[in-house]
Design a protein that fits this description.
The chain is 0% helix and 54% strand. With 614 residues, it is mostly beta strands. It is flat, with a radius of gyration of 33 Å. The relative contact order is 0.04.
């Protein structure tokens, strides 16, 4: 079998309208010209005795007009030997990539083996090349990058600290590329570490064409075991999985601390690295944040773009007892800044506070919680903004405060604009729970209670409960509130609602007689949301007190209100009123039509399948 990768470059010539004397005008033929260029290696060393060849593309960059792949060299009729990597651009043609020399040639099998693992939009290609010694002894792999400006360059750490003995041969080295940014030549990776000729841990590194390979992370005595073991990791964005922030200038990571005896860990420290500042430790790590035996620990988090980082560092008494946790945020310009609530209401008898970082948004704002001292109990929610510092948020009136000061609030949604939606416990006495109310905080409004109130939602003792389900960047919040029989406290269904600063709380969903039981039972549920401000959901059809008789889908927006969705009429409703329709969550047609389904039924109520509607 003969196989090769081919690329077609299309050049189109558009026909021109010309005058044909005084007779009439006509179009010239609309020619399209194609050039097919063969990629890969296909010379004599890559062709078997019967003409067998094999090339394959691994990366195809539409923006960079670059293709990278590999070709097998062939021995005899079709016996593959070398796996040689290459890259192709219109300017360079096919160029061999990888590392070369005796260390990258397996003498026993007479072959090389390379692979391409990354390619970005700026033309950088990277990968690994197997290393070996005579006797088919693996010596690991070397990492490499290729750019049009640098050609092939070995990257990673491969000095004495990263070279060790295997099978009696000194020379094992193992480096891998972990990440490459999409638009500029910035590469991150790891190299196996060795002590006394044996593998023991790993080291992280960064590479740029200007800096070359630079080791990053914390490598002091506190981060090294008595045998020399070290372990560092890149800090990834929880949403994108990237370790590079969007301007590609700062890298975040963590390094384990050790006691110095064996590999017993002694906490963890966090760090940032940039080409201008090197590796900088984050958080608090002074004596007040160091426990017995040098123990230091905490938490860290970032926003999706890794442009904002924050965390918490544990605080200790002089005897090593933990008395708190201090929250912080860090910037390259401002360094580490303490955030959170530190007033008397949030300070324990030992003088410490427990502040916890929860989330950062694209604007660099941070939300978190602070534990209220044991005498009062509970916790408070807060937002930190670079220009305003820390602001307490949540509901704090008498309905939400116990007789000893207990309060409990939590932030549920946090937008890039800086709005927050959350929930606060309703309490009576010292801390007897009476449900929870929802709220929204904005810079313009402060904390505003959301959700539905009144006799249909409140028990005689004041119990009421709502749940926050959505908050858009446009300021629309949505959620649900439990319906209750006031006298008995029995569950009586659920109603859905939206809130905005302009409209206040608005009930949404269908609440017609067909959707209400004899005792007032209703049940509506939100299925999905649109950032544009529309909501999809369904409301149950009810017969008798609370028996289900199907459900109807609905759509809500500020301009339309609640609009029923689905197919109606014969074939879709029984004589007893049984009907069933629902929205497909998150699905639209052509970006403007909602998509759902309706069940088909006989007049008797026997199902006949289903139909879809737009």
């Amino acid at each position: 079998m003969q196989r090769a990768f081919q690329l077609a470059v299309v050049v189109t010539t558009i026909g021109l309208l010309q005058s044909a004397g005084t007779a009439h005008a006509q179009w010239l033929p609309d020619y399209q010209k194609y050039q097919v260029r063969r990629l890969g290696f296909f010379g004599s060393g890559y062709t078997g005795s019967t003409g067998y060849q094999f090339s394959a593309a691994e990366f195809i960059g539409a923006e960079s007009r670059q293709v990278s792949g590999y070709s097998f060299s062939i021995a005899g009729q079709a016996s593959t030997r070398d796996r040689d990597t290459w890259t192709w651009t219109p300017e360079t043609g096919t160029v061999q990539t990888g590392l070369f020399g005796p260390d990258y040639f397996n003498v026993s099998f007479q072959q090389r083996y390379g692979q391409t693992t990354v390619q970005n939009r700026s033309g950088l290609v990277g990968g690994s090349q197997d290393r070996s010694a005579p006797g088919n002894i693996s010596l690991g792999a070397g990492a490499w990058v290729w750019t049009p400006q640098t050609g092939n360059v070995r990257v990673g750490l491969f000095g004495p600290a990263n070279t060790f003995v295997t099978s009696g041969v000194n020379g094992f080295q193992l480096s891998t590329i972990a990440f490459v940014n999409s638009s500029s030549n910035f590469v991150l990776g790891g190299s196996q570490r060795q002590v006394s000729g044996s593998p023991i841990g790993d080291n992280l590194w960064a590479w740029t064409p200007t800096l070359g390979t630079v080791q990053i992370g914390l490598t002091s005595a506190a981060h090294t075991t008595d045998s020399g073991y070290q372990r560092s990791r890149f800090l990834k964005s929880t949403s994108s999985g990237s370790v590079l922030n969007y301007d590609n200038s700062v890298i975040f990571g963590r390094s384990d601390r050790f006691t110095g005896v064996g590999a017993t860990t002694n906490g963890v420290n966090f760090w940032a690295w940039s080409a201008t500042m090197g590796t900088t430790q984050l958080g608090f790590f002074d004596a007040a944040h160091t426990g017995a035996g040098g123990y230091q620990d905490g938490e860290v988090g970032t926003n999706a773009a890794l442009t904002a980082v924050g965390g918490s560092s544990r605080r200790y008494r002089s005897d090593g007892t933990q008395i708190g946790e201090d929250a912080w945020t860090w910037t390259e310009l401002g360094g580490t800044v303490q955030i959170g609530l530190v007033d008397a209401a949030h300070t324990g008898s030992s003088g410490g506070q427990y502040n916890n970082f929860r989330k950062a948004n694209a604007s660099g704002q941070i939300i978190g919680t602070t534990v209220r001292p044991a005498a009062a109990g509970g916790n408070s929610s807060w937002i930190w903004r670079p220009s305003f510092g820390t602001t307490a948020i949540g509901l704090t009136s008498a309905e939400y405060t116990g007789s000893s000061g207990y309060r409990a609030s939590r932030s549920v949604f946090f937008t890039d604009k800086g709005d927050v939606a959350g929930e606060s416990d309703r309490v009576t006495g010292v801390r007897t729970n009476l449900g929870r109310d929802t709220w929204v905080w904005t810079e313009a409004t402060g904390t505003v209670r959301t959700g539905l109130v009144g006799a249909d939602y409140t028990r005689v003792d004041g119990y009421r409960t709502s749940a926050a389900q959505f908050l858009s960047n446009g300021g629309l919040a949505a959620g649900k509130t439990q319906r209750l029989i006031a006298a008995t406290g029995e569950d009586n269904g659920s109603d859905t609602w939206v809130w905005s600063a302009a409209t206040g709380n608005v009930q949404i969903g269908i609440s017609s007689p067909q959707h209400r039981g004899s005792g007032g039972y209703q049940f509506s549920q939100i299925s999905s949301f649109r950032e544009s401000g529309s909501v999809l959901g369904f409301s149950k059809r009810i017969r008798n007190a609370s028996d289900s008789n199907g459900q109807n889908a609905w759509y809500w927006s500020a301009s339309t209100g609640t609009v029923p969705m689905g197919l109606d009429g014969p074939g879709y409703i029984s004589t007893s009123g049984l009907q069933f329709s629902g929205p497909f969550q998150g699905m639209t047609v052509l970006g403007q039509y909602e998509y759902g389904y309706s069940g088909r039924v006989q007049p008797s109520g026997v199902g006949l399948g289903g139909g879809r509607s737009v």
